[in-house]
Amino acid sequence: MSRLRALASWEALLALLLVALVALGASLHPTTFLTSGNVSNLTSAVMETAIMALPMTLIIITGEIDLSVESMLGLSCAVLGALWAAGVPLEAGIPIVLVMGAAGGLFNGLLVARRGLPSLVVTLGTLALFRGLALVVLGDRGISKFPEAFTDFGFGTISGTPVGWPLLLFTIIAIVLGIALHRTWIGRQIFAIGKNKDAARYSGVRVQRAKLLLFVLAGTVAALAGVIITARFASARADIGTGLTLTVVTMALLGGVNINGGKGTIPGVVIAVFVLAVLGNVLRLARVSAEWQSIAVGLLLIVSVVIPIVAHQVSVVIERARLARRPPAGPLEPGEVSEA
Fold first, then answer.
1. Residue-wise pLDDT tens digits, 318-334
2. pLDDT over threshold 60, residue 199
């Protein structure tokens, strides 16, 4: 229960931070910030990273990480553009790209789960590998002239609302993964792996298979994000998405996911997504340079890691102090049994 209360407190803190940022944006730009157009812009600007942050959450909870998602996004964008330029219709190109993303995730998963290699090293390697393949496929070319219906999916909104189609897709994925993580045996196994993979294995959890499937999911979702960013920019380039992994990891950790595994919630990550979206929008409206925006994201990443560690250390100190103040137990009376 104490852990659940801690997570709830973290989510409540994030919600308060989100409200404060919204109030700040509304006060600095009262005629711009709360307009439907700006709300649509600030959400669509982070949807690719937000979608990738959801499976990343599950992977980090198991004690692993996937640094290659930005390159898989770029590779998917490049392959989709090359297929379109070669005359392949999008109805066929998009499934091909998603299968390719699953294959890339499978490659990561086989090396991490089956071979036991460190996920940090493996996905750092595939970060370069996938980006190199994207450059081989597309080079320095840019592919455009996609169908209007496709590009409308990237930055268009549902009729009569400021809700973009990518935001709707993000919501669906978040609900599905949230239910799986917090309401099913799948989630219990994921948390068990993150807390103690050996104990999970002895209790019957198929640790290797679970990790393998999570990496496949992350690769598939990264490919989907590549499709979305291609539609939003109405252009395909091999270098697109460079540097997005930092934001993806920040969203997960800021949402309360423990970098060492075993803890985290999908609702916390969803709130963190909108915190970063609103913060970035406020900074852009305030004409803050991209360099300082990057500094702000980096500081949030550090804070999201440091605060839980400090909070845990403080709770340990408080618990020790409470036990030290407890009066020592007196001698046992004849016939009395110690509670210890």
1. 878 878 777 765 565 55
2. yes
Q: What are phi and psi of 298, to 5 degrees?
A: -60, -40
Six token digits for residue 104: 């890339």
- 8 Å CB contact between 282 and 25: yes
Q: Which two tokens stand for residue 322?
A: 């409470």
Task: Please check whether residue 42 lies inside any domain of the structure.
Answer: yes
CATH of residue 12's domain is 1.10.3470
pLDDT, tens only, 114-158: 999 999 999 999 999 999 999 999 988 889 889 988 988 887 788
pLDDT of residue 1: 45
Strand partners, 157: 164
With CA atoms as reference, report the closest residue to 190 among 212, 223, 222, 219: 212
Domain carrying residue 115: 2-321
Q: What is the DSSP string of 175-204?
A: HHHHHHHHHSHHHHHHHHHHH-HHHHHHTT
Ramachandran assignment for 204, one of left (phi > 0), alpha (psi -120 to 50 degrees), beta (any other): left
Contact of 61 with 261, CB cutoff 8 Å? yes
Number of folded domains that form the chain: 1
Report the b/e string of 209-222 with b at 16+ CB within 10 A. ebbbbbbbbbbbbb
Tell me the pLDDT of the chain averaged across its residues. 88
Residue 328 domain-assigned (yes or no):
no
